[in-house]
Amino acid sequence: MPTLMQAFQMSSSSFSTIISNLQPDLLIYDGFQPWAAKLDSSQAVLFATSGATTLLFFHHIHTHGSATHFSYSAKYFRDYEQKDLQAEGRSIKLKDSDEGFAFGIFKQSHDIVLIKTCKGIEEKCIDYLSILCQRKMVPVGPLVTDSKYEEENSEIKKWLSTKDQFSTVYI
């Protein structure tokens, strides 16, 4: 993880040049490129690639310092798992500590957060995470869908189809 984060950080200046040249209307980024939201050439929206329950659990630990009193008792880590996660988190070094990793990324997202989940599975967690992050969570479902589920994502597809080619960049 530390090497991956370092590689992403090293790419920020090159990526900034690419974005300046493309000038997209919308920049969709994930948590591994928190610096992407700072590029002033576009509006940036976070795409959370984890489910709402996991993000909510980690947000709770980040906010409260432990998993004690987590609202959803079915989701938990054993003590040794929490220690491993905390050690991994400390091993990640950022160039700029206000880049937002891991929960500031929500604050950098413009009004909404796209999240890889669906309300049918995680509605309570989506709603609570939305309150904690002060952003509307927009579940986009799984990235690969069966044709019978295409209607579920039709609003996003209709919106994207109204945009010019190359006006949206997915990182």
UniProtKB/TrEMBL annotation:
One of its GO terms (molecular function) is UDP-glycosyltransferase activity. It comes from the Eukaryota. SUPFAM superfamilies: UDP-Glycosyltransferase/glycogen phosphorylase (SSF53756). GO terms for biological process: carbohydrate derivative metabolic process. PANTHER family: GLYCOSYLTRANSFERASE. This is Beta-D-glucosyl crocetin beta-1.
